[in-house]
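HUMAN: Can I see a protein plus its fold?

ASSISTANT:
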Amino acid sequence: MKAKTKRFIIVLTGVFLVVFCIFSIFSDSDYKYLSLETPQRDKFEHFERIVKTEIPVNIPSRFVHKINFESLEDAKRRIKELEEKLSALELRTPKKFPETKFLNYNTRKRILVTGGAGFVGSHLVDSLMTLGHEVIVVDNFFTGSKRNVEHWIGHRNFELIHHDIVNPLFIEIDEIYHLASPASPPHYMFNPVKTIKTNTVGTINVLGLAKRVGAKVLIASTSEIYGDPEVHPQSETYWGHVNPIGPRACYDEGKRVAETLSYAYAKQEKLDVRVARIFNTYGPRMHMNDGRVVSNFILQALKNETITIYGTGKQTRSFQYVSDLVDGLLALMASNFTEPVNLGNPVERTIQDFALIIKKLVGGSSKIKQTMAVEDDPQRRKPDITRAKKFLNWEPKVNFTKKNFIH
């Protein structure tokens, strides 16, 4: 009886190992898919369909007796053959990366970008990689996407870590760009407590990491710290007009605390800190469902739907192209200026005018209508970029009326 029990346990263990191996092959398909260049994806998907046909995964119990693996060794051999085919397919389609500069050990930096798979973060990663630096991206993929950085996956200077910055991170780096945070109202209102934790606890973790390794750190703040401003345009010396219990407060106040923490660490721990107050930004990789005015208007115009304006349309905003913002972030990090700096386009437009521009550029037959205003929506927003011009030699270059934002 004991011998039969032992044999049963051995057989059961063998079956478990086979199932585990098969599961491991298919669970890794997302990574293999991302490792391929776009022209080769169809080949991969075709091969994957063949594999799934040869080894059914969800098999009804009435068909189980028809599976004809003669032995455990036969199953292992089949799995090995499939692994070899996948490896050969990858070898035949070597990945081509964007061109990068070569930097020697003394000039190449190891740079951490939190939120690096997001809209702004991924464009910053592109610039840092192109300059020849080693880049580590940390993202929890709440609003970020692997697709934004997939063209770097596998590059020797690139590393992607799935991690939530509200948990401590232990890594050796020279510089940190802290961009991790939901940035659009629907995203940060979806989980306001999580948004506050990301901008407070997450920032503490980033500053603590910078302290441990002696890294320079740039904190991505926002024009939202000015709230619904009573001073126009907004300079960095303006303290803001913020509703601390309104629907946007989780983001606005979270960023204000992040700035306070940064300068407290700078004063007490002698940390080398930079703070960028980022104004409205647009460009490729924007979330089409982020609820912000740029993406809303473009999506509605492309679908020939009614372009919806919340409020009178007399509210003003200024819009900068993402490449201009990235240039500003790089310039700020490289500078010796330690006070907050506005990074935005000083050209101010009403929401009504903006809707008309989008309609004209996109084309179509969309109508424009006004609806009820959103609570705590700022009425005017325009940056004073005197500091950026003086200390960073920076100002926006891209003309908003070009079609860059719909490419």
